[in-house]
Design brief:
single chain, mainly alpha, MetI-like fold
Length: 573
Amino acid sequence: MPWLPVLRLLRLQRARFADLVVLALVGSALWGVLALAPSELRQVAPSTALDLRPQALPGYVRLSLLRMAAAYGLSLAFTLTVGYAAARNRTAERVLIPALDILQSIPVLSFLPAVLLGMLALFPGRVVGLELASILLIFTGMVWNMAFSFYHSLLTLPEDLREAARVLQLSWWQRFTRLELPSATIGLVWNSMMSWAGGWFFLMACESFTLVDRSFTLPGLGSYLAEASSRGDLRAVGWGLGALLAVIVAMDQLVWRPLVAWSQKFKQELAEDPLPARSWFLDLLRHSAVVQWAQLRLWAPFWEALDRHLRIPGEQVSRLAAGRTRGRPALAAAAAAALAAPVVWGLVSLARLLVQVAPETWRDIALGTGATGLRVLTALLVAGAWTVPVGVAVGLRPRLARVVQPLAQIAASVPATALFPVVLLVLLRLGGGLGVASVALMLLGTQWYLLFNVIAGTTAIPQDLREAARVAGLRGWRWWQAFLLPAIFPHLVTGGLTAQGGAWNASIVSEFVTFGGRTLQTIGLGALIASAAAHGDMPRLAASTVVMAAVVVGLNRLFWRRLAHLAETRYHV
């Protein structure tokens, strides 16, 4: 009978049903990667005519997911390497943190010429060059908040735990895997969600771009939305946004919510949370015999072998450290000599470009910097006014988090330029223009950095400290002033720092937009950068980028860096 297989499935034990789900997911993923994606890639050309029919969306979604996954893997490796080096070595910190400040202040479109031309030079006439360029551009929109979160988490480790690691003479690998990475996991998970959402946000600019009046298009969900928006095809925009929402919801249920629930075991607390975060898919995996077998037979032996290989006894660590100290001057001199030539060449090339900038262009850049700065400040104030109370409420109430988390991911992931037609039409009817609309679109690209970091900071507050605040009778403003704001202050600094960079970056898509065959532009530094990149005006692009980087780095040095030092020395558990 046709219903007998269904009855047999319902009679399976929970573990075997979980096995079937896991195997089905793994099999479908492998099928999508190995069978469908290569067939799509073989059809790619430097400029691809996109099919705006809904039937083409599944293939485009798969290609975009592959690029996003590659960019996230690169971002995670960069975060763990650079964040650890900056937090554990003062010399590296003096170099890496200013470099991160500068790099996060450079918009995606300012990376475009160097990345695109470099990849096309390495792979002339081949699609792989465009693919790598797209992945690297998505990486530049993902990585910075993850790196700053991990770096700040290492700086604010409790001193008693650091002292315990020193007393136990843990090697760097043991300290990293037993103490530092677990302590940073909660913030890293929430910032990974934000980074993935940021990747979606800039996907339209990373799959379909124009340089020197030549268009480069890769088939994907971002280029589909860009093409639909450019043609003014609202129906195709709706289909694209529907596909994006479906992917976001699926990833929330299958990836992010299980990671959030799993990361709660790394909270530093003595009292157990009465309402911990839960995930049905994580419970399913924990009951899967296939997952348990893979963990016991594959993952655990691999991890133990890696642990034995990298674990170094304390006395050997001392001898190796002494050897590194003796050889450090020679290594530093060699590194400086190797870097001197490209650095000098780059500065000379930049100076040659800046000399070509006309005085009236510098005046436009100064005016645009002021206009964009006011929009950034407005966006940050509006974002802070609602993200702090909402983020605290979500972080303190896991049941509310189950509802708000996927909604926040959806809102953070929708590209602003895809929503531009609706936002602009509404604001025009209300009496606003592109200047007001650009603030709204900029807010869409920056408020989520604050929200996700506030949620992460509130979630990481130990349950015993919450109980102590309740027993002490803290209420109202006193509770915020004496307990909550100091507890989440390091995360507020990380969120504000990355939100500021995100706001300046979002100006390139909020101040210069193409819709329905028309280009709409307002006064601003982001509009100057987007216009210069589209027309191949390299001197104006270089000048605008240098000014934006200088402004962001100056704000970081004068304001955010001081707050970060305060968080490191005073406001951490």
